[in-house]
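Lab notebook page, bench 4
Experiment: in silico fold of construct C2
Operator: M.H.
Input chain length: 501 residues
Purpose: comparison with the prior construct
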Amino acid sequence: MTPSSPTDSHDQATTHSYLSALRATLGEAAVLTGSDISETYTRDWTRDRHGQCLAVVKPTTSAEVSQVCALSHATGIGIIPQGGHTGLVGGAQRNRGDCILISTQRMTAIEEIDADGMTCTVQAGAVLETVQTTLGEQGFQFGVAIGSQGSAQIGGLISTNAGGVNVLRHGMMGAQVLGLEMVLPQGQILSSITGLHKDNRGPDPLRLAIGAEGVFGLVTRACLRILPRQTHSATAYAGCTSMQGALDLLRHIRSNGHEVLSAFEVMSQSCMPLAQSVDPSMILPVDAPVHVLIAFSSAMDLPLQDHLETLLASAFEQGVVQDAVIAQSQSQAARFWSIREGLVEGQIKRGYHVRSDVSVRLGHVPQAAVALETMLAEEFPGWIPQTYGHLGDGNLHFNALPPESKSEEEARAVGKTIEARIFDIVTELGGSFSAEHGIGRTKAGWFRKTLPARHDLLAQLKFTLDPKGIMNPGCLLAENLTHPPDREDPKTTGAGSPATR
C-alpha cells in the first residue's frame, strides 16, 4: 500500500519542515516515508484493516520519543503509537494520512531483573516472548500469556490492558504493572518506576495509561511484577455436553485445585474444522459438543498430574464430563494447545468473519453462549458460530463465519448487524462488549453510546493532557476532541459505532 499524501489539515511547507526536523533529530534511517513504508506498519495482522500515515518514526530512547512529541505538538501533527501491531480493534491504524506513526520496535531493552524484588524493568518495545525467555533463564516468568507473544510488545500489552489464557490465575496486564514511564503530548517525560511493591504516596496518575491505547501519552518503559518459574505442570483435554457442563467442571476443578489452576479454556465443536484446516493431521483428543483445556502449574514439585486425574475421574463419575485425556508429556500438552491456537489461525485463513471479544459474569456464560448461537441460527441462517474463549474469567470470543456463497462485500454489510446483535445480547446480560482487546477505533462509538459518563470524563482528562488532540486521534475516544465534550451532543463517531451500523 502506498501511504497517502498529507491532507489539507497541514500545508506542504509545514509538513516538509516537520519531516526535516524529525530526520535531523533521529537520523534518516529512523524516518520512513512514501514507498519505504511497508504493510508491516499499515495493515493489521488479520489483514482485515488498512491504515495510512504521513511517516513511520522509529525512536530508540525515551528522549527521542520526547523530541518527536514536542515537534508534533508544536505543529499539531498527530501521533499513532504502534507496538507489535497485533491489536484487533484498529488502535494502530487510521484511515487518514495526516499523522505520523511512532513504532517502538527499536526500544527493546530489558534493563533490569531484580531477583529479590521479583520485578523486571523493560522498554516498551520489548517482545513478550523475549521477556519470557530471558526471565526463564534466570528462574522467573511473567504472568501474561497470549497467542501473539512472538510479536506482541510490552507497551502495547499495557496500552490495551491485554488478557490472555492466565487471567484467572494472575489477572490482566494492568495487574502486572508496578510503575510506568510515559511521554506526554508536549514532550514531558514522567516516571513512576521505583521498583517498590508498596508506594502509597498518592494515586499514580500514570496508571491512566493502562488500557488507554495511547490517547494520553506514549508508554516508553515499565516495571513489571514477575514470578518464580512454574516448572511443574499438568494439562488435560476434556469434553462436556454443553457450556453449562463446562462451567460445572470449572466449579469442580476450582473448588479442589484453585491454587494451581492456571488456565481453563473452552471451544465449541463448530470450531474444530477450522483448527483442522490449519493442520489436517490434527487428531482431536475427545468428541464432544464442548472441548475444554485445563492447565495446572506450580513452582513446587507437587503431584499435579495425579491430582488432576483424580478430579477428572470424580467429575466423570458425577456426569460432569464425557471424556478426558491427560497429557503424558510436554509435547502432547503442546499438541492440545495447538488446537486452541489453530482455530484462530483457521478463521483468519478462511477470510472475513465477524469477531467479538465479550465478557459476562461467570455464571452467565452458558446463557450468553446459548443466546448468541440461537440469535445467529434464527436471524442469520447459514452463518457458522465459533464460540470459544477463556471460561475461567468469563471472556467469550463469539465469532461468525459467513456462508461461502456470500461475497466479502455482502458478508461485511451483514456482519455489522451481527456485531450489533452480539453487543445487544451481552449488554442485556450486564456484560462488556470489550473484554481484553480494547476499544480502538472500531468500538469507539459503542463506548461513547453505552458508557457516556466514563467516555466524557476520560475526554475531559484528555483535553487537559492533550489540548491539541494529537495523541492517537479517534482511538478510544470520539474523533476531533479539541475541546471538553458537550454532554448535550448525542453524536457518536468511529467505525463500527451504532451511528454507522
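Observations: The chain has a mean pLDDT of 92. The chain has 14 helices and 18 strands.
Next step: discuss at group meeting.
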